[in-house]
């Protein structure tokens, strides 16, 4: 997930403690005789804040000779640091990435090890190989200008868009997803995947509201969804959940790694298609509010849907519902990440929590009245 304001502090964990414990743990994975050393450990200024992301290098010796690997650890956040989501299933994320790599052509990092024991780093974590490339920035959002994607040629921007849609389509083409990814099934109430998905989101919002961020606007959005339920919602695929370009590493305007699987689940294809479009529209509207040109011809709904249909043979349906659902979830994201900023002393907590919602004008158009 993301925010549109100043760069956010992600963790209160001590980096040197993390480095030492990672090194000890790696010794148990590889064998103490390999003499692993973890160095150059740091956080990341890239997008995403729902988990702690640790970049590091590890060196060791084994029967194959010396190794010097660039690695990434994803660690569930400390409960004291106002986590974005109520729960974090790091083993589930690891297994999702592993299966996506095995079963599809969608580009994901290579997962190496998963550690479910929370006692080592304070939370479960997994380690994967680092992938080099560029990520469209969230801070400041890429439509604001002054970054590699904004300054690219229209042809390169369209190449990036096409590559992203292709990667999402590849995820959705994994056969028998409800069986292969059964561990992602929501345990919330509901007789369809979409019902359980929305119920899960409502439970997430209830957590956010209970922590001082209740929003009548968000609640009106849930009421709208209930009154406008799509007719056909039971063709479930693997849903990435946070399908946006800020969660993709690109090289030469081509997707080489899909990141951030905290929101992965099972549900209709339209969940990811709408999220991709709405995620850009949120940033584009922020640019327009500041009287910036932005990127109005990028990731347009018609273009995304036409390309997706050409790749999969499936024409996205009921997009009005799924677009509004995506916008509603963005509102919850902003409530929670704003609350995190207040926790770390990076902003004052407003008297009206809805002031935290960067896409509030969008939600007012969609749901108020």
Key words describing this protein structure:
two-stranded antiparallel ribbon, Phosphorylase Kinase, domain 1, 10 helices, 369 residues, alpha+beta, five-stranded antiparallel β-sheet, Aminoglycoside 3'-phosphotransferase, Chain: A, domain 2, 41% helix
| Anisotropy-based shape | globular
Helix and strand succession?
A: HEEEHEEHHHHEEEEHHHH
CATH class of the largest domain reads: Alpha Beta
**Strand element count:** 9
Euclidean distance between termini CA atoms:
28 Å
Low-confidence stretches: 1-10
Please give the order of strands in the largest beta sheet: 1-2-3-5-4
Annotated CATH architecture of the largest domain: Alpha-Beta Complex
- Multimerization status: single chain
Helix content: 40-55%
The CATH topology of the largest domain, please? Aminoglycoside 3'-phosphotransferase, Chain: A, domain 2
Specify the number of helices.
10
Structural class: alpha+beta
Biggest sheet descriptor: 5 strands, antiparallel
Quick structural gist:
By secondary structure, the chain is of the alpha+beta class.
Structural write-up:
- With 369 residues, the protein is of the alpha+beta class.
- The protein has 2 domains: 15-129, Phosphorylase Kinase, domain 1 (2-Layer Sandwich), CATH 3.30.200; 142-367, Aminoglycoside phosphotransferase (APH), C-terminal lobe (Aminoglycoside 3'-phosphotransferase, Chain: A, domain 2, Alpha-Beta Complex), CATH 3.90.1200.
- It has helices at 15-30, 90-103, 154-172, 177-180, 193-213, 216-227, 270-289, 301-312, 319-343, 360-367, and strands at 37-42, 52-62, 65-75, 111-115, 125-129, 237-239, 248-251, 254-258, 265-267.
- The strands form 3 sheets. The chain has a 5-stranded antiparallel β-sheet. A two-stranded antiparallel ribbon has the order 6-9.
- A hairpin with a 2-residue loop joins strand 2 and strand 3.
- It starts with 14 loop residues before the first helix and ends with a helix.
- 44% of the residues are buried.
- Mean pLDDT is 92; it is low at 1-10.
